[in-house]
Write a structure and sequence with these properties.
By secondary structure, the chain is mostly helical. The chain has 7 helices and no strands. The protein starts with a helix and ends in a 10-residue tail after the last helix. Pfam families: DoxX.
């Protein structure tokens, strides 16, 4: 067995760890905007029916769904879109350089969520528990 084979068999678990950690951190953005936890945003808690309020709901509810790996692909698609919109509407106009415009996280979230659109949730997910058999070679 080569090192690639030995590491490759842990891909579903590594993907699940990425999914869980990403979701937990992403959810904090939603709780910050909705509840002021762990600290309120500098601009204050946004109205629920504002662009930031809708984003906060997506971050909290979408993050929770991603955390449990439930409806992972469609939810990840929506969240990737949210992060793309956030980057181009709020970060990119400040500067073309992500390190200067504060958009690093939005870019990373966008592409991590896109990864989940194509890979699914990995191990330890509601989606995985709901299906009857493996659909991909790494899920065997």
């Amino acid at each position: 067995m080569t090192n690639h084979d030995a590491l490759g068999r842990w891909s579903p678990q590594a993907l699940a760890v990425l999914r869980i950690v990403t979701a937990l951190i992403f959810m904090l953005h939603g709780t910050q905007k909705l509840f002021g936890f762990p600290a309120p945003p500098e601009s204050g808690i946004p109205p629920l029916m504002s662009l930031f309020g809708v984003g906060a709901v997506l971050e909290l509810v979408g993050g929770l769904l991603i955390l449990f790996g439930f409806l992972t692909r469609p939810v990840a698609f929506v969240l990737a879109g949210e992060m793309a919109v956030a980057y181009w509407m709020f970060h990119a106009p400040r500067s073309m350089y992500p390190a200067l415009n504060g958009g690093d996280a939005a870019i990373l979230y966008c592409f991590v969520f896109l990864l989940f659109v194509f890979t699914g949730p990995g191990a330890w997910s509601v989606d995985g528990a709901r299906k009857t058999g493996p659909r991909h070679s790494w899920e065997r």
